[in-house]
Amino acid sequence: MNFLSAVRSALRALAANTLRSILTMLGIIIGVAAVITMIAVGRGATERVQEQMKGLGSNIMLVLPGGANTGGVRQGAQTRNRLTEEDATAIASEVPEVQVAAPASRTLGQVVANNANWGTVIFGTTNDYLEAREWPLQSGRQFEEAEMSGSAKVAIIGQTVAGELFGEMDPIDQVVRVKNVPVTIVGLLSRKGQNSMGQDQDDTILVPISTFRNRVQGGTPGNVKRVWHIHVKVREGQSMKVAEENIRQLMRQRFKVQPGGDDTFIIRNLTEVLQAQEESSRIMTLLLAAVAGISLVIGGIGIMNIMLVSVTERTREIGLRMAVGARGKDILTQFLVEAVTLSVIGGAIGVLLGAVATWAVGSFAGWQVSMTAASVLLAVGFSGLVGVFFGFYPARRASRLLPIQALRYE
Fold this sequence. Notes:
Number of strands: 12
Oligomer: single chain
Radius of gyration: 33 Å
Mean pLDDT: 81
Order of helices and strands: HHEEEHEEHEHEHEEEHEHEHHHHH
Number of helices: 13
Distance between the termini: 26 Å
């Protein structure tokens, strides 16, 4: 018996008991659909974290003020505002692993242009912030040195702010009022999207940090140059751990922290946090796929059960085939092909169901999903292996029947 004849015979045998065949395939169908859907959900989560890492920038650290201590009660993080622009300069110049260190302060405020207005995040920072965040401009230019030192009334805006204030109009050289301070837009940031907290990174406006301090916040040039935090970018190929430790030692010296004393600042390795999230997503994908794979195993047990029943029902047929010249190998092939055909058909239906389920999860639950050809091939291939594994024993049992005993079977 050649392979094509075995397939035709298998299809006829399955069609003879259509309902039983469908119920047998149900475990495979559910298993394949579950594997495809779970892998798509897990890959979507992983890709989302990777997008967030790309949007954040690589090798990024954040230096924040520590908690204040009032009356013996320790306050939360960033309640002690001691960081200065000079701290950022020191980190950039004295820590060899650091590429740039950008001081930044922020506040919320209303931005007005013509008849439009929009509430957004106002950042006071330097051009190093864009380098640290790997955030190129879509159009326009960065701040000039004279503008940085002279508290110039200039700004760079994000895509969301540009859309809300100007629509399709080019925002470059337009004048907006930032907390009643008129500034000229000199640059438009490229689109970043949401961060890991779901916040729109494009909903922002950047001004020189001196402009922020002296005009937006209403300070005077003689004030201490306080900042809210410092964005640090470590050079490519340098150890993040070494850089973090060197920054810590430098800041302890600058803050005059006594040996053994607690740090009065916080260093957060943002890249490390997102990498941990990515690893967690990958592990969760494997766990979800493994749980879904249990359905395939259960489906395989169902195939073994139904094939054993089929061998019993068709014992006389097997004896007749052997009596007219069929070899044990032919009987083995016939029943093994039936089991694999059952699995592959169930796998194909499961692929369609999995595609629909993946689409539903992405559309109605709002989750990011990613269905790939590799996951489809994995699920279908595994279902075929299940058919071979669980169909081999019934097929082997059928091939070892003695023709005389099989023909006498009642």
